[in-house]
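hey can u check if this looks right to u? its 70 residues, i copy pasted from the old doc so theres a chance i mangled smth
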Amino acid sequence: RTYGNGFYFYKAGSGGAGVTSYRSSDGKWAMLVCRVLVGRTCLGNWRMETCPEEYDSTTDESKYLSEVSH
């Protein structure tokens, strides 16, 4: 939980490869790739339970990672 509670999305697959990939019993790796509309973003932090009312998601300083609260 780095930038709040919720689902984390990276702009590039390499960003989440170490923590979001799945290795099956036959040794193959899998990762879900999708488009995500994150809406208006603000800088997040680990203490945030939800986004501020006027925002839809949080991000890190580089805007490489987005977190959408559930």
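The CA atoms of residues 39 and 56 lie 5 Å apart.
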